[in-house]
Design goal:
alpha/beta; single chain; 5 strands
Length: about 220
């Protein structure tokens, strides 16, 4: 049974390559379509939170002054997600901070930590959406209200619900459940394949996936 870790960062800016640092991280474990565990922590890096970021997230410099050190938080979340493939909404953003903060903390990379992106997947599956922001997709699919947007745990929980929707829709629409998919639908490995395709390639991809077991059995 596959366990997937859905993660979300709040940060002081857009990119660690531009000097931004993490202010909060959350991780939600999804096992066979069910949310089974959650982790959340503010992170003290010494970085200053700009006023517009504080207004957006509600995370203040005063709050971070009392937060645990980023190094300790990253080691804890690495243990929490050990061996799990990862999912994030706009994964290129979260991957950058995951790698940068992990390196700063001296964390050993986990080979299992391959990212699937619910933005890329939703663009392929839900072209009817007005846009592919997390809040828009939550309304489109009538996902549960998880709390204030732009806080790490609320966004990670919403992304976890979106992941479940995507897994079920891929399995139903394309007739593929995939390796370790269980009753939840498409596996993480299949989602990683799917997110790299153009929409015009998806039907051919599904047909090839469906024929694969027959080809193996015929050998």
């Amino acid at each position: 049974m596959q366990t997937i870790a859905v993660i979300d960062f709040e940060t002081t800016g857009i990119s660690p390559t531009q000097g931004a640092r993490a202010t909060e991280i959350a991780a939600v474990l999804v096992e066979d379509g069910q949310i089974v565990a959650r982790f959340q922590s503010l992170m003290h890096t010494g970085a200053w939170v700009p006023p517009f970021i504080e207004q957006l997230t509600g995370i203040s410099n005063a709050m971070l002054a009392q937060a645990p050190p980023a190094r300790a938080v990253m080691h804890e979340v690495m243990r929490f997600t050990h061996g799990c493939p990862l999912v994030a909404h706009n994964a290129s953003f979260d991957r950058g901070f995951w790698q940068a903060e992990g390196e700063r903390a001296g964390c050993e990379p986990d080979p299992a930590h391959r990212f699937a992106c619910t933005v890329l997947l939703s663009r392929r599956l839900y072209p009817q959406a007005d846009n592919h922001r997390l809040g828009t997709l939550a309304k489109l699919h009538r996902l549960p209200d998880t709390g204030r947007a732009h806080r790490a745990l609320a966004d990670a929980l919403t992304t976890a619900h979106l992941l479940r929707q995507i897994q079920a829709d891929v399995a139903q629409r394309y007739g593929v459940a995939g390796e370790a998919g269980g009753s939840a639908g498409a596996s993480h490995a299949l989602l990683c394949e799917l997110q790299q395709l153009q929409r015009a390639q998806m039907a051919r991809w599904a047909a090839r996936r469906q024929r694969a077991p027959e080809a193996v059995a015929a050998r």
